Amino acid sequence: MSSGGKTLKFISWNIDSLNAALTGVSERAVLSKNVLNTIKEHNVDIVAIQETKLPYDGPSKKHSEILEDMFPDYKIVWNSSVEPARKGYAGTMFLYKNHMTPSVSCPKIGAPGTMDYEGRIITLEFDDFFLTQVYTPNAGDNLNRLEERQIWDIKFADYLVSLDKKKPVIATGDFNVAHKEIDLAHPGSNRRSAGFTDEERQGFTNLLTKGFTDTFRYIHGNVTGAYTWWAQRARTSKINNSGWRIDYWIVSDRIADKVIKSEMIDSGPRQDHTPILLEINL
Asked: How far is CA 267 from CA 24, 223, 229, in A?
């Protein structure tokens, strides 16, 4: 660690149901719990979790007890889906070390439909940076939400710019887009699939051009075969590494050179999302 700053470590993961990971007994729930244990072993400063699917009033007493047992040195903040949005849908959560004292906000960004009520963003403000996480709305199997998604992408980029004007930004989460052809195994057959439409890819390009860096590409260049998500519907997707990179750590351009590591954490045989790690010396 250099004397010029403090090295911080963060992990982000789309958990696809916190309740299942904490209290479920299915084979998949056990795999999810194993991933949580892997995250715990990394002993990072902050954990960001997307798609918690918790009720509007957040974690139950049982959830809280299990989380406190697993992560005893962390405070928990959450943002759940509330009416008029669907119940038990989307949702985000941060766990941050007890000694940290960020101010917490759950911004509304002027998104269309019920998107602002789906618990999709939490922002932590520290003395010298913002850390925000997002669970970007999916465009839908029939792209029925693509137009709303395009508006979301513009609004979210504007939101990050508004933060960036005050202090550097670190943004993470499930952005639900594979940016370039090298970010998924089968670009040709997925041209008009949700997460790889020209519109969504352009939305992500627009975000980066506003002053942000995709840290994984910054560190690893044009490496291929590096993914964060494997479809559960296809039984062999993970064995064959037929994946997509749709989860990101993004930083303000001016702190990109402070990034030490940006990488995936192995989630074993579990399909769906894998956690991603950022190490940065601020």
From this structure: 18, 20, 10
From 174, 183, 214, 247, the catalytic residue: 174
- Is 114 a domain residue? yes
pLDDT attached to residue 5: 77
Find the CATH number of the domain harbouring 220: 3.60.10.10
Q: Other C-beta atoms within 10 Å of 241: how many? A: 12
- The answer to whether position 1 is within a domain reads no
Q: Structure tokens of 31? A: 């795999």
Spatial distance between the Cα atoms of 180 and 187, rounded to a whole number of angstroms: 9
Annotated catalytic residue, options 135, 159, 227, 248 = 135
> What does the pLDDT read at residue 4?
57
Q: How many domains is the chain built from?
A: 1
Q: By residue range, what is the domain housing residue 77?
A: 7-281
pTM of the model: 0.97
The residue among 93, 100, 23 whose CA lies nearest residue 51 is 93
3-state secondary structure of 8: strand
Q: Which of 2, 8, 1 is nearest to 251 (CA)?
A: 8
Q: At residue 2, does pLDDT exceed 50? A: no
174 is catalytic: yes
Residue-averaged pLDDT of the chain: 97
The position carrying tokens 């999302």 is: 273
Kindly state the DSSP code that residue 136 receives in the 8-state scheme.
P
Residue with tokens 């719990």: 33
C-alpha to C-alpha distance for 282 and 128, rounded to whole angstroms: 8
